[in-house]
Amino acid sequence: MLSIKNLQASIEDKQILKGINLEVKPGEVHAIMGPNGSGKSTLASVLAGREDYTVTEGEVNFMGNDLLDMDPEIRAREGIFLAFQYPIEIPGVSTTNFLKTAVNQVREHRGLEKLDAVSFLKVMKEKMKMVEIDQALLSRSLNEGFSGGEKKRNEIFQMAMLEPKLAILDETDSGLDIDALKIVANGVNLLKNKDNATIVVTHYQRLLDYIVPDFVHVLYKGRIVKSGTKELALELEEKGYDWIKEEVDAAV
Amino acid sequence: MSNNINQTLINKFEEFEASLNGASTSAVHDIRKLGIKAFDQIGLPSLKHEEYKFTNLSKVLEKKFDWIAPHHESTQITLETLADFEIPNLDAYRIVFINGEYAEELSDHQNVKFTISELQNVAEADTDIFEKHFGKHATYEDDAFAALNTAFVKNGTFIKVDKNVVVDKPIAIYNLSDASAGESVNYPRNLILADQSSQVSIIELFGTIGNHNSLVNTVTEIVLGENAIVDYYKIGNDAENAYHVGMTQVYQPNNSTFTANTIAFGGGIIRNNLQIKIDGEGCTANMNGLYLLNGKSHVDNHTVVDHIRPNSESNELYKGILDDSSKGVFNGKVFVRKEAQKTNAFQSNKNILLTDDAVINTKPQLEIWADDVKCSHGCTTGQLDLDAMFYLQARGIDKDKAKAMLLYAFAIDVLDNVKIEALKDHLDQIIAKRFNQEF
After folding, report:
1. Is A225 in contact with A250 (CB distance < 8 Å)?
2. Cα of B82 to nearest chain A Cα, Å
3. Residue A203 banded pLDDT, cuts 50, 70, 90
4. Per the structure, how many domains does chain B have?
């Protein structure tokens, strides 16, 4: 589904990603972990198409197409979804109207009929249950005045509405209390099936108790320096990142 | 440079006076003479004039209009012509001016709950009201354009809403310049009295028929009674060779509420002067403005709110979106006099510049002599929020649509104050068309 080869990217002439290689197949959950500043969020942003970053080398193939050649909105319509680490507050745009526009532009691209107001509301109600999000929240301006937990739940709700092929969760767990974390993880698990895949970017192992990964990758200094199964995450939780840093720095 | 044009205008007044024959001894004409006398003393403002620093109307008068040319007859304006300017589905009383003259056959105010008369008649029949109000609020002594309007006013309307009357429908005043046969220069004038505990909504619209240059110099005086409520809308959406300078002067006594919504979508130069005198306690004055400009449009909003007495509040919010090489000017003065304790005055001006060539000059000006007040002001100018753009795009929304959504969202807190649904829909339509979108 997703094939990343030697991906290198920089921001304002500072190189952040120094050659990422990653293969993701349908049905898989990959966790990307790593110390602060290792490039985790950059990877998520580059995949979603944020223009602040310049890709200097490498290629990314998504479902047979060159992902890097697509505008952010085309990536989203093709099935990439980025759950933002810091969802943006947009005063004056109601969540409902925003999502209706988004869902219909995505459906149009996928060759599906646009949803009318009634069917849209019906779909919305179903998905709202999944992430236990309140209707009142959705009639408000997008993320404006939402608590941290509400913002993250809103991200997962949007994901449920847009039905992506590949969901990238960028530190969705950071700052969440355990109840909010469970709700978010539960939503992600309900959306999982054999045809879609998830990349979970996180600093902490705790989320992985609830969203169980098939693979765990450690990112350090812009490269994946270690890959393993969920046991690797537990080891990182116990020993911290220092032993990996030492291993890598010694090898250089 | 302006000496020439100043003298031309004074000569023009003499011609106008001669054309009036017997009417030149009326009460209205006495005030006209005061107007031209004031103009003679002040003359057109140069760019050195603090209030006209960024808006060179004098140059427009000098370069764009041929004052010597004979007066062009208005063409036949029919209801069909008017329909192009009307707000769809608006249920309102209609008052139409063509080139500053009241057009009875196009107006529709049957079974009205207010009285409308021509100022000339008021001057004769209602001498007290005329003397008390006409030209007493819009001070022509220190503003050249108000002075010119006062000098050249042909007639004008007088609208009076009686005590305790709630006018059931908005009053829409269409000010159309007929520039189909040649340039049009005109001077509409309104005096509106909303008596004690009355309530009325007024919409002033401006437009040009034909392709020649037009210049509207308008004055509207609005005098509220105690406890009266007036909603006032001024909508400007005109061509780049249409010029406009307008003064809206408002007087508020105790417990009155006045709300102005000043909205401009384009025009060669539009200068809106909104001046509110709060001469009572328990008053609220709201000033909302939106300017959504493209091309070479130039819109200048000058507002003054003068808190003379204690325990009142004013709220001001102006927002601008400037595209292409359009230009905006905002100047908001708030005076809180020594006696006006416990005043709450808030002012905000926010702008988005969409290109490097768009310009905004903004100047908030608070002068506070009282010591127990709550006042704040702020202005911001920025570009489109790229993080928000990316967020919307990352959800599959294309760039143009994302941009339109964000700009509409920026304007929404001004538009939300528009309480007349048909008008709100009309404004939404104009905005949607501007952004090539359907909302």
Report:
1. no
2. 34
3. confident
4. 2
- Pair B342, B372: CB distance under 8 Å: yes
Using CB atoms, which residue from A71, A76, A92 is nearest to B395? A76
pLDDT tens profile B57-106: 888 888 888 877 666 666 678 888 888 899 999 999 999 989 888 888 89
Q: Are B171 and B114 contained in the same domain? A: yes
Q: Cβ of A87 under 8 Å from any chain B Cβ?
A: yes
Q: Which of A16-20, B181-185, B301-305, B387-391 has the lowest mean pLDDT?
A: B181-185
Is residue B255 within 8 Å of B247, Cβ to Cβ?
no
Q: Tell me which chain B residue has its CA closest to the CA of residue A76.
A: B396
Residues B266 and B284 in one domain: yes
Which residues on B lie below 8 Å from A51 (Cβ)? 386, 390
Rounded-to-integer distance, Cα B130 and Cα B125, Å: 9
Chain A residue with minimal CA distance to B400?
A73
Q: Are residues B117 and B177 in the same domain?
A: yes
The tokens of B73 are what? 């007859």
ipTM score of complex: 0.95
Answer yes or no: do B111 and B224 share one domain: yes
**A53-89 per-position pLDDT tens digit:** 999 999 999 999 999 999 999 999 999 999 999 999 9
Residues near A242 by beta carbon (within 8 Å), at least 6 away in sequence: none
Tabulate helix, strand, coil % of chain A (nearest 5).
40, 30, 30
Q: Which tokens in the block code for residue A64?
A: 């047979």
- Specify whether B373 is located in the same domain as B403: no
One-letter-per-residue 3-state SS of B316-353: EEEEEEECCCCEEEEEEEEEECCCCCCCEEEEEEEEEE
Same domain for B265 and B412, yes or no, is no
Shared domain for B357 and B327, answered yes or no, is: yes
Mean pLDDT lowest among A74-78, B5-9, B163-167, B339-343: B5-9
Closest listed residue to residue A55, CA positions, set A84, A16, A85: A16
Domain range annotation of chain A: 2-251
First to last CA, chain A: 32
Longest dimension (CA), chain A: 61
> CA B229 → CA A38, B277, B427, distances in Å?
62, 15, 23
Token pair of B389 as six digits: 């753009």
Phi, psi of B48 (to 5 degrees): -75, -20
B409 plus B322 within the same structural domain: no
Domain boundary among B384, B403, B428: B384
B304 in reach of chain A (CB within 8 A): no
Tell me the pTM: 0.89
Range of the domain at B55: 2-384
Topology, domain A2-251: Rossmann fold (3.40.50)
